[in-house]
Specification:
heterodimer, A: about 250 residues, alpha/beta, 6-stranded mixed sheet, 4-stranded antiparallel sheet, about 25% strand, B: about 270 residues, mainly alpha, globular
């Protein structure tokens, strides 16, 4: 398989766009990344390089390994084979150094239901050494100030997703790992979240999505996973519609 | 909603939170957004943040404390009727008190990491650039607080329902025994709770692992408190039993500190 996803196997690679990454370590350098759960390979032979400030769209059917990839990159799962560098730091040995610069917006909000949005965000601000003023700033940016004192369990899923976005960007990470970031958001909330996690957000992004059109529009590089293995890798303009469709068949 | 969305101040222009370490210098250059904090807050700040969150969640949910206290009081009531005697003292009293406290403590141990595991708080903590030992210390301190509240309810209830001799004069020595035993229960309880929470049989695994490990605590605490619960208070708590409890606390505290990081690893 070549960089555009055509071909017949072997590890897929793609070089970063030189203009975006000059003078900075690539956001991601994966070489043969493999991760197993017991005997099952959830990810195998993922090889790619994502330049600093670039966006990687990860596509694939359910169970393809997208969430596992995000959790490995977030340092929550160890790679079992291959080498992984996140923002220049090798995992798992230098994970402690990478963590401060990674923001994860996972499928679950990673927030306490009994605490309010403000209490949750202040707790995470303390863990990241961020001043409390940043919490109020983000609550206002996401138009959550009025409901910030209510326990999370009393908020709608869309509002919880807004708080989760605030948590993920609280420490202004250099790499955002986004799993279906716009899930449960209405158009107005999506517009509010855009400067924080959208194309204009600072830093590199990895977006897992079931919306190929939206993901391709934002991506500098596209990775298609199927059964944990890379089935597609390349620049979005080099990928054809039927290749995406084959990914989900 | 009519709030205007304000602009976001760049991180480089904002102050760090109190207790946060200064951004590291000498890196290959700041990442986009200007926020580079490879070193998170200090250990004390992290412990305080996690402990505060822990107590706040317990205060809101009341998932541990009422259950622990009610269990202890109910057990004393059951003993009161089952033993068919007006009062107990000495070894028997000490045995009843410590076995009841230990089983009540298991209820708190079982719940210690449940909110974190079920709601993703554990993952969020692991994503933060903090010393992971802070979680052990904060959880152990929270468990110690729960045990203190449990004993505030259970010990007077025990004196009222079962104990023959007056507890008043023995109280300072009994408090020392309670404190030493609680430290051991908190260290082992936190360690076992962290181990069990990621398993499907966590409610079973917690007590199965903790109870054998806590047998020395029960022996030490029961032997130390037996003279205090006797008529005439036959001597002090026994220095060697207090020393045993202190040694246990030290050894298992260090073991918990040493292995806790590995328990959190994938």
């Amino acid at each position: 398989m070549d960089a555009a996803g055509r071909g017949d196997g072997g590890p897929a690679t793609a070089a970063p766009a030189p203009a975006a990454s000059e003078g900075r370590a690539p956001a991601l350098q994966l070489d043969g990344l493999t991760r197993c759960f017991a005997e099952r390979e959830a990810l195998a032979g993922v090889t790619l390089t994502l330049g600093a400030g670039q966006t990687l769209a990860v596509l694939g059917p359910n169970g393809a390994g997208k969430t596992t990839l995000l959790r490995v990159l977030a340092t929550l799962l160890r790679p079992h084979a291959g080498s992984v560098r996140v923002l220049g730091d090798a995992l798992p040995h230098e994970a402690w150094r990478a963590r401060a610069r990674i923001g994860l917006l996972a499928h679950d909000p990673l927030l306490y239901r009994e605490l309010s949005a403000r209490e949750n965000l202040r707790f995470h601000a303390r863990l990241h050494g961020v001043a409390p003023g940043r919490v109020e700033e983000l609550l206002a940016a996401l138009r959550m100030t009025a409901r910030a004192g209510e326990p999370l369990r009393a908020l709608s899923r869309g509002m919880v997703q807004r708080v989760a976005i605030a948590r993920a960007v609280l420490h202004e990470p250099a790499l955002l790992l986004l799993d279906e970031p716009y899930a449960n958001l209405d158009p107005a909330a999506t517009a509010l979240a855009e400067p924080l996690i959208g194309a204009g957000a600072p830093g590199a992004r990895v977006i897992c999505s079931h919306d190929p059109t939206g993901a391709l529009a934002q991506a500098d590089l596209v990775l298609g996973l199927r059964g944990g293995r890379p089935a597609l890798l390349g620049a979005p303009d080099a990928i054809e519609r039927d290749q995406i469709e084959r990914l989900y068949r | 909603m009519s709030q205007a969305a304000p602009s976001i101040q760049p991180a480089a222009e904002r102050p760090l939170a109190p207790g946060a370490a200064a951004p590291a210098t000498g890196d290959a250059g700041p990442p986009p957004g200007g926020a580079t904090r490879p070193h998170g807050p200090g250990l004390a700040t992290t412990i305080a943040a996690v402990l505060r969150k822990e107590l706040l969640v317990e205060l809101r949910t009341l998932e541990s404390l009422p259950g622990m206290s009610l269990f202890a009081v109910t057990t004393f009531v059951v003993f009161h009727f089952a033993l068919n005697r007006g009062s107990v003292d000495g070894d028997l009293a000490a045995g009843i008190l410590w076995v009841t406290l230990l089983f009540a403590a298991m209820l708190g141990v079982n719940r210690l990491f449940v909110a974190d595991a079920d709601q993703g708080g554990l993952d969020a903590f692991l994503l933060a650039p903090v010393d992971r030992s802070a979680l052990l210390v904060a959880k152990a301190l929270a468990l110690l607080a729960y045990l203190a509240v449990l004993e505030l309810v259970a010990v007077p209830a025990f004196a009222l329902l079962l104990l023959g001799p007056s507890l008043w004069h023995a109280m300072p020595a009994l408090l020392a025994v309670l404190a030493l035993a609680d430290l051991g229960v908190a260290a082992i309880g936190t360690l076992v709770a962290a181990l069990a929470v990621r398993t499907r049989a966590r409610d079973l695994l917690g007590p199965l692992l903790a109870l054998p490990l806590l047998i020395p605590v029960v022996i030490g605490a029961a032997r130390a408190s037996a003279p205090l619960l006797s008529f005439g208070h036959g001597g002090g708590p026994g220095a060697r039993w207090l020393a045993l409890l202190a040694l246990y606390d030290l050894v298992f505290g260090l073991i918990a500190y040493a292995v806790f990081d590995f328990l959190l690893e994938d």
